[in-house]
Design a protein that fits this description.
This protein has 430 residues and is α/β, with parallel strands linked by helices. It folds into 3 domains: 109 residues, Methylthiotransferase, N-terminal domain (Rossmann fold); 230 residues, Alpha-Beta Horseshoe (pyruvate-formate lyase- activating enzyme); 60 residues, Nucleic acid-binding proteins (OB fold (Dihydrolipoamide Acetyltransferase, E2P)), CATH 2.40.50. 36% of the residues lie in helices and 22% in strands. It contains 14 helices and 18 strands. A 5-stranded parallel β-sheet has the order 2-1-3-4-5, sandwiched between helices. β4, α3 and β5 form a beta-alpha-beta unit. It starts with a strand and ends with a strand. The mean pLDDT is 96. It binds iron/sulfur cluster. Iron/sulfur cluster binds next to α5.
């Protein structure tokens, strides 16, 4: 039996793609191993969302190809879609599996050829090996309706392709049957789910059907772009009120300046996002708000930057995915002149500091409070990681002992918060 090692980069959707690769390979008689040394085949599932991650992956491809010249190296995911030639230069013998061809992983190994054709690939209802049995990841669509000037993901994933609503619900049902207690529904833009297929967003309908499924579980909803979310905001607020929904809102803003948003072709103004977050925070004062910002976009003036800083300082996102602008070939922004690295780094640290202060402030109100926590991960040293009803990370210590590592796993606990950090809280079962 040939052994396969899968290394994954990027978003929740790509984690799920790796789970699907594992499921298809296991079904075809391959074994799955946890490190590259003992594997016969290495699958690196790539991501192109950030320049920094891309460079890291390209170095890794080169290292793996040098270190293991006799092993089969497969590069999967978004990078084969956008950088096939360069990957072949870095690792001449590697095989390429595009992000629309995960179902062809077995054929690729059988025929020893690349699979890069663009097609709509349904990624639900496929065999998968979950990376965490307690968490079931289901993609609801692929691609998006956007055309953001800086975005390389668009070049890889293409236009919106929503999966059939019955198939998505069946995928969640199957995860629940297999023991998942936390359901992640994910895509590049969940708010526009179904617009390509049904002419309007069907996200609310999909969520309501998932929330009607039997069992005690929680749903984490993936990122939503402001423009699409605003159109369904009232209904989404009522969906978020369901106790099975984590009060977790992930809305990437990318910039707090309307001029920069226009240049990025984001399709909304910052006031619209402010209305969304104000509404969410009014309904769910303890709710977690997550956002993404690109700092140092070429046209970002000092005033534009102040716009982003002002937004972060006022709305205090709990989760903050900050990226320094990076130019990507094939995107509109490729031809723009970049700001100096020094200016961008200074702005990035100012933004991060502002975020950290706000996120810590948000958490201080939990100290001494009792919160409900679902434990979904076992860490080292008898420590467990759980999520409260707002999807805040809560660390809890078990009582230790031989089977201490699984003692609290999968449990719903009442925990008293003892201390807080910027991105987590520490509690005691109480
Ligand atoms: S919405 Fe914009 S940033 Fe998001 S994947 Fe689409 S093009 Fe890229």
């Amino acid at each position: 039996m040939k052994e396969v090692y899968i290394e994954t980069y990027g978003c929740a959707a790509n984690q799920n793609n790796s789970e699907i690769i594992g499921g298809l390979l296991r079904g075809a008689g391959y074994g799955l191993v946890g490190n590259s040394d003992i594997a016969d085949i290495i699958v690196l599932n790539s991501c192109v969302v950030k320049g920094k991650t891309e460079n890291k992956i390209k170095r890794r491809v080169q290292d793996l190809s040098k270190k293991y010249p006799k092993k089969i190296l497969v590069i999967a995911g978004c990078m084969p879609e956008t950088d096939a030639k360069e990957l072949k230069k870095l690792a001449v013998d590697c095989l390429l599996l595009g992000t629309h061809n995960f179902k062809n992983i077995v054929n690729l190994l059988k025929n020893y050829e690349n699979y890069l054709d663009k097609r709509n690939e349904v990624k639900v209802g496929l065999p998968k090996i979950s990376s965490n049995k307690l968490i079931g990841i289901t993609q609801i669509s692929e691609g998006c309706l956007g055309n953001c000037s800086y975005c390389k993901t668009k070049l890889a994933k293409g236009d919106l392709f929503s999966f059939d609503i019955d198939d998505v619900v069946k995928s969640v049902e199957s995860d629940l049957r297999n023991g998942a207690k936390e359901i992640w529904l994910t895509s590049q833009d969940c708010a526009v789910y179904g617009v390509d297929k049904y002419g309007e967003s069907r996200l609310v309908e999909l969520l309501r059907r998932v929330l009607l499924l039997k069992g005690r579980f929680k749903v984490r909803l993936g990122m939503m772009n402001p423009a699409g979310l605003f159109l369904i905001l009232d209904e989404m607020i009522s969906v978020f009120k369901d106790k099975k929904m984590y009060k977790f809102l992930h809305v990437p803003i990318q910039s707090g300046s309307d001029d920069v948003l226009k240049s990025m072709r984001r399709g909304y103004e910052i006031e619209l996002v402010e209305k969304i977050v104000e509404r969410f925070r009014k309904e769910f004062p303890d709710g977690v708000f997550a956002t993404d910002v690109i700092v140092g976009y070429p046209s970002e003036s000092v005033g534009d930057f102040r716009g982003s800083l002002g937004f972060v300082s006022e709305f205090k996102p709990d989760v903050f995915n900050l990226s320094k602008f990076s130019r990507h070939k094939g995107t509109e922004a490729w031809k723009l002149k970049e700001l100096s690295g020094e200016v961008v780094s200074k702005r990035a640290s100012e933004l991060m500091e502002c975020h950290r202060a706000g996120a810590l402030d948000n958490k201080k109100k939990f100290v001494g409070k009792k919160v409900k926590v679902f434990v979904n991960k076992s860490l080292s040293g008898g420590l467990f990681e759980g999520r409260d009803e707002n999807y805040n990370i809560v660390l809890v210590k078990g009582s230790g002992g031989e089977f201490g590592w699984k003692e609290l796993l999968g449990k719903n606990l009442e925990v008293v918060i003892k201390s807080v950090g910027v991105h987590h809280m520490v509690g005691e079962v109480g």
